[in-house]
């Protein structure tokens, strides 16, 4: 039940559902009187169902003193409710053959069950019990604290993860969106049962809950189960966070014992609710696949890195165009020279065949994601939270098709004009900071 890792950003949810191979029933969206929202995706060709409860409460909703508490709550969710202990929760799920999981992200915490479609109703009720009636037993809390501290230590030992934490801080400073999902050691060691209960009471209101279901289910039957399980949940206040201002800059951290340097180089791009499609395609043009300029030039031709990639990490509040790479420290200078050269070249022109490749790669990723009901639930829920509706595949397809090479070229120009954020962790040569600043144009 981990927090999301930034080292492999997922495809933005808006592009997980393009160009279907068969007509499907439209999603069914409903809002209860107390504000709980539901989205049901009827998928009659699947014998299973994925049921998830998303709570719009993640690390970006925490204060500095609370940082990491959303992840702590997620870990404790399956440790007991007022009517089930940990063993009973596991038994009730497994007797139905269900998989149970959860994750924490910056903008939400989610709880999942997946199993036979005929058990979708019981899944809704079990997840409602976990989300609404967690007992947070003191003994379990202390045991789970040790588990989380081990997870934190593992994360701290990962130089690439460290570079992403530095990168977010560079981008957004003290804004809560820059805080790591896992939190910090001091907070993890300090969180009390009372703090956890207070946080849940304040953040886990009905107006922050979305129930998503996908599979061979009767939508109206599912909605009746949601009404029964969540209808009397107190409404609470919506968890709102203002968008951050972008900053930029350079941060380095030397990590003893490492032989490699891990780099995250990025720029601001529009958020999910803004016109971000050109930047999304630009990231695929630049660094998706072995034939992309980033991989072909930096890895295959020059041998500067053993790992590199490019992504557009788009969320409701903000977006980031991210280039990540791992390399021997002596290759840092040449890496930045070549990456900046390639970025500037794309701000001059983008080849039509490169755009076609990028568009096809995004479409294929979306079609493959269609095969996984849990991903479809997450995509629909993210759409519902960001736009108040689930956008049609035709709309998503048209958004991709209307982006031409000139729009992508201009997107690269805007990246370079906004200024870079550069985070490096691992083994670093002396004096590399000033050379990196010069290579990427930082003051």
From TrEMBL:
Domain Peptidase M16 C-terminal intervals: 191-361
Domain Peptidase M16 N-terminal: 47-183
Keywords: Hydrolase
Listed SUPFAM superfamilies: LuxS/MPP-like metallohydrolase
BP terms from Gene Ontology: proteolysis
Source taxon at top rank: Bacteria
Cross-referenced InterPro entries: Metalloenz_LuxS/M16, MPP/UQCRC_Complex, Pept_M16_N, Pept_M16_Zn_BS, Peptidase_M16_C
EC number: 3.4.24.64
A single GO molecular function term of this UniProt record: metalloendopeptidase activity
This protein's record includes keyword Hydrolase: yes
Cofactor(s) the protein requires to work: Zn(2+)
Gene3D superfamilies given in the database record: Metalloenzyme, LuxS/M16 peptidase-like
Pfam families associated with the record: Peptidase_M16, Peptidase_M16_C
Annotated family: Belongs to the peptidase M16 family.
Protein name: Mitochondrial processing peptidase-like protein
Species, as recorded: Piscinibacter sakaiensis (Ideonella sakaiensis)
């Amino acid at each position: 039940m981990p927090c999301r890792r930034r080292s492999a950003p997922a495809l933005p949810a808006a592009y997980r559902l393009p160009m279907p191979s068969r007509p499907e029933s439209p999603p069914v969206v409903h809002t209860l009187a107390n504000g709980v929202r539901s989205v049901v995706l009827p998928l009659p060709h699947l014998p299973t169902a994925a049921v998830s409860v998303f709570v719009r409460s993640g690390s970006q909703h925490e204060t500095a003193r609370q940082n990491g508490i959303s992840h702590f709550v997620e870990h404790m969710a399956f440790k007991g409710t007022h009517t089930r202990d940990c063993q009973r929760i596991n038994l009730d799920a497994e007797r139905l053959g269900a998989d149970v999981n959860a994750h924490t992200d910056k903008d939400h915490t989610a709880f999942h069950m997946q199993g036979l479609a005929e058990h979708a109703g019981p899944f809704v009720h079990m997840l409602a019990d976990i989300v609404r009636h967690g007992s947070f037993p003191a003994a379990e809390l202390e045991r789970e604290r040790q588990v989380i501290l081990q997870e934190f230590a593992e994360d701290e030992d990962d130089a690439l993860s460290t570079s992403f934490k530095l990168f977010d801080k560079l981008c957004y400073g003290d804004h809560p969106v820059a805080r790591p999902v896992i939190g910090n050691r001091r907070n993890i060691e300090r969180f009390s049962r009372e703090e956890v209960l207070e946080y849940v009471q304040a953040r886990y209101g009905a107006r922050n809950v979305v129930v998503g279901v996908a599979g061979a289910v009767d939508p109206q039957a599912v909605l009746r189960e949601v009404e029964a399980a969540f209808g009397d949940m107190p409404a609470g206040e919506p968890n709102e966070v203002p968008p951050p201002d972008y900053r930029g800059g350079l941060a380095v951290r030397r990590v003893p014992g490492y032989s490699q340097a891990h780099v995250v180089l990025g720029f601001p791009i529009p958020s999910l609710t803004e016109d971000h499609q050109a930047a999304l395609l630009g990231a695929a043009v630049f660094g998706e696949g072995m034939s992309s300029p980033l991989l072909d030039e930096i890895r295959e031709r020059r041998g500067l890195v053993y790992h590199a990639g490019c992504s557009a990490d788009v969320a409701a509040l903000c977006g980031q165009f991210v280039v990540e790479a791992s390399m021997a420290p002596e290759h840092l200078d040449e890496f930045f020279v070549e990456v900046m050269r390639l970025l500037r070249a794309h701000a001059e022109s983008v080849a039509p065949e490169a755009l076609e490749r990028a568009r096809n790669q995004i479409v294929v990723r979306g079609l493959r994601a269609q095969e996984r009901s849990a991903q479809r639930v997450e995509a629909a829920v993210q759409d519902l939270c960001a736009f108040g509706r689930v956008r049609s595949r035709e709309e998503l397809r048209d958004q991709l098709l209307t982006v031409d090479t000139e729009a992508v070229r201009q997107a690269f120009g805007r990246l370079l004009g906004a200024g870079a954020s550069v985070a490096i962790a691992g083994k670093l040569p002396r004096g590399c900071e000033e050379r990196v600043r010069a290579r990427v144009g930082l003051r």
